[in-house]
Structure formats: C-alpha cells, structure tokens
Amino acid sequence: MAIAHVDFFAETLGLQSAIDVILPERTRRRVGLASSAGGPPYPVLYLLHGASDNHTCWQRFTSIERYAADKGIAIVMPAVQYSFYSDMKQGFPYWTYLAEELPAIVRDFFPVSDLREDTFAAGLSMGGYGAFKLGIRQPERFGAVASLSGSLSQRSRIVADPNAGFSNPILFEMARLTFGSAEAYDGSEHDLAYVLEGRIGEGARLPKFYQACGTADFNLELNRDFHRQFAGRADLTYVETPDAGHEWRYWDNAIQQVLDWLPIRRGKGERSEERDG
Questions:
Q1: Does the keyword Hydrolase belong to this entry (predicted)?
Q2: Residue 132, helix vs strand vs coil
Q3: Which of 1, 95, 183, 277 could form a disulfide with 87 if both were Cys (CB 3.0 to 4.6 A apart)?
C-alpha cells in the first residue's frame, strides 16, 4: 500500500484543506517479479472521522492500512472539522465540499472509479452520520455506506444544555451553529430518517447500509431507533457488539468487518504479477 498526504486549496471552503489517501500499489518489484503499472481505476472508500478528530485519526488509532492491503481499494480520509458533514448555517459549506468538490479533486489526483458500484462511504460517530448522509442524499452515487457508533440524529445535541456536565460542550454549540434550531432541523435535508423515508416513498434505488454499535455506547438508542424504523424496508445490516463502547478498540475491529462486508468487485484495482522471462 502507498499513503499520500495531500494539502490543497478547497474552492468551496475558500481555504486550505487536507486529505490522506491509502492506495494499492500497482507495481511491486522483487527479485524475479515485475508487474504493470496500468489497470482499471480503483474502487474508493470515503472514510470519515468523528467529532474532535481529523483526517489522520483512522491511521493513527487503527491498522486501516494493513486491513485494506488485500482489498484492492483506495481509501480517502478528508478533514471536515466540527461541521457534521453539513453546509453550516453559521460556518462553512462542508456538505457541498464533501459531496461535490472533493470527489472531483480525488479523481483528478488519483486513479479511482466514478461508478456507483465502486464508490462507498463509512465513518464513526459524527462520521457515521456523514456516511449515511452521503448514501441517503446521493443514492445514485454510492453503492454501500457504513456507520459505526453513528450519531444518526443530531436533534438531541441542538436542544441539550451544553453546560449540563457534558464532556465536550463545544460539540453542542457547534451543532447549533450548524443546524440552527430543532425546528429548522426537523424535516430538513439534515434529518436522515426524514430524508430516507422520502427516498423509500419515491422508490429510489438505495445503497446497501451497514450499521454497527456497541451496547455500552451512548449512541446505542439512536442506532436502535434507526434500525427499528428501517429494518426490512432498506438493505440494512445491523450489528450490536456486547459491552463495546465509544472507543477506538471497538472501531479498529469494526472497520475490518466493514471492509469484508463491502461489495468490492473482484478484479477492480487488483495487482497482477508475472515472472520475468
């Protein structure tokens, strides 16, 4: 695998941004071995960070590079700050950046596929919300999306008192800056359950969904509510892990299960090797 650290100017945001990208290596040279640098574009997984994290955390706290080594897939990890992967009411248009500008930038820089069946998203906590948001709002672009310990509704953060002993009160203030009031959030493009109900009603072709959470996680009831609402109505795989909390030890294991679950088409991005004659 190869890792690229890319700094660039994001026109949508009007500022410098960054992504880390893990890529399969098309060429590997050993004694007596050689391979072609050509081949089809790679399937791509947009792997999203949680609140208070950034684009480096998946690499720092899991073995994601090692887990992806035999999958033949590119993994793109963007930075979005405390944006909830949304166009903020008071802040930056991170949804537009993530959903429109970033994929074009990635395709300009790297040989990744733009086909729906090769395009996936996954994330943890706030990133789980972002991954499902991509799949629900852009079902024509994503073949599968996965949420780990996802904060699949942000409503409780908007109405909560940030001074009521929470470990991270900044998160609650950022939710209000992003979404405004609870009334503005309910039934909006940010309300995932509402948007997904609409997609189902329209008969949209939806991606596959993977939803996982630990039973000791504070987002458990949000995940159970979402599962109860859509089980049997969408292609939704649901996994609860006993005693697992909101922690990297759990996510390090869960992302391996996600990579195994993804419908990666064999032959896409795989390396072929031939012995020199």
A1: yes
A2: helix
A3: 95
Average pLDDT, rounded, for the chain: 91
Reported as a single tens digit per residue, the pLDDT across 28-77 is 543 343 344 567 899 999 999 999 899 999 999 999 999 999 999 999 99
Select from 92, 82, 91, 71 the least CA-distant residue to 25.
71
CATH code for the domain in which residue 169 is found: 3.40.50.1820
**Does some domain include residue 204?**
yes
Q: At a CB cut-off of 8 Å and minimum separation 6, what does 19 contact?
A: 6, 8, 55, 76, 77, 78, 79, 102, 105, 106
CA–CA gap between residue 65 and residue 14 (Å, rounded): 31
**Total of domains in the chain:** 1
Question: What pLDDT is stored for residue 40 in this prediction?
Answer: 86
pTM, rounded to two decimals: 0.91
- Give residue 212's domain range: 2-25+38-269
In a domain? residue 274: no
Note whether residue 169 is domain-resident.
yes
User: Given the structure tokens 């309910």, which residue do they identify?
Assistant: 186
Task: Give the model's confidence band at 159: pLDDT under 50 very low, under 70 low, under 90 confident, else very high.
Answer: confident
Residue 233 lies in a domain: yes
The dihedrals phi and psi of 33, each to the nearest 5 degrees, come to -125, 145
Which amino acid is residue 231, in one-letter code? Answer: A
Where do we find the tokens 């909390």?
245
Coil, helix or strand for 4?
Answer: strand
